[in-house]
Amino acid sequence: MQIATAFSLSSDTAQAAAEAVSEIRTQLDKDADLLIVYYTENHDPAVLNSYLSETLPDAAIHGTSSCLGVMSNQGFHSDEGVGLGIWAVSDPGGSYGTALVPLGDDPLATGREAVEKAMAKTGRPGELPDLIWFSSTPGCEESLLQGIQSLVGEDVPVAGGSAADNSVAGDWTIFDADSSDTSGVVVTLFYPSVELSYAFHSGYSPTETTGVVTRAEGRTIYEIDNQPAAEVYNRWCGEPFEASLIKEGGNILASTTLHPLGRHVGESSSIKQFKLSHPDSITAGGGLTLFSDIQEGDQLVLMTGSIDSLTSRAGRVTSAALTMGEFERDEISGALIIYCAGCMLTVKDSMSSVVDSVNAALGDAPYLGAFTFGEQGCFVDAGNDHGNLMISTVVFGK
Questions:
Q1: β-pairing, 288-290 with 220-224?
Q2: How far apart, in whole angstroms, are the C-alpha atoms of residue 226 and residue 386?
């Protein structure tokens, strides 16, 4: 297996794709079998789809929009919110299949159909993949994951991140070699010729502040401990929100990045694992909307983070993936990394340090990282899940 990465800061979509593909070809001995593409909202996915499928017709293609830019072993790539990156694999001994399915009325069926279509393209019908790389538009990631698991079971790791734009305005897109869409899911099934490993963590620590969800629906918490959720959360955070905001509602996304809500999902090496939910807004009735599903009876923990913890955590999560796979740094051909867009926006001025931490963990092996509006990964002994403000990493051996 060979892995290569390339980027472009050109705002012209065709030129950006051409520049990245040209660089990819200088790094690979043979044409790529798989391209994973992350790009900012200014780029036209139909143009990317057309150029890449015509230029590399034998490659599976998986494309997802990313917030403000991308990162790779070559740095943090963003020019006033414009950037494109390509992660390419040449692996004659492996098989890869990608499929996009528009979101229908039944997300479970959509998730299942995407895997069925991708599997049909791999030449491995009925054989479970080693990994499913997952990218959906935001909104029903949990249901899509359930649909995938209804077909492949719970032992196949699923990792990836939700499509993003630059301002949470809904300008996200996804594409594969055949089509593009603003609502749906694209998955890639990996049957690589090498071993792989993964990790799914956050850069946050639990506090002693806890509560129980006593009324909720979908992605909105209405009550915590039988009290209005926004009032409780405001109190937990030291009352940063004015009374008028609590009463009338409004967006609080930028103010809550360092204080997400966590749920304990298990332990790994005696370390508690949490999946996080990012409070997005306060409703007029005093509820809290999130970027992930919530259930009545869920036990909530107020989490806390800092610029330093979010900056260093990407490298530590990558090191955890190596440790889980018992890889040394010189045994790695490359990696894929998902880093929450909310975290990136919080530590934007320190993104060079984030890149340095990952490079140190990987020994400068090639990787591509995207900034997403939801993260998917596999917890040790707790299975696949969707969360917010998380880091999801997959590393590949040689």
A1: antiparallel
A2: 26
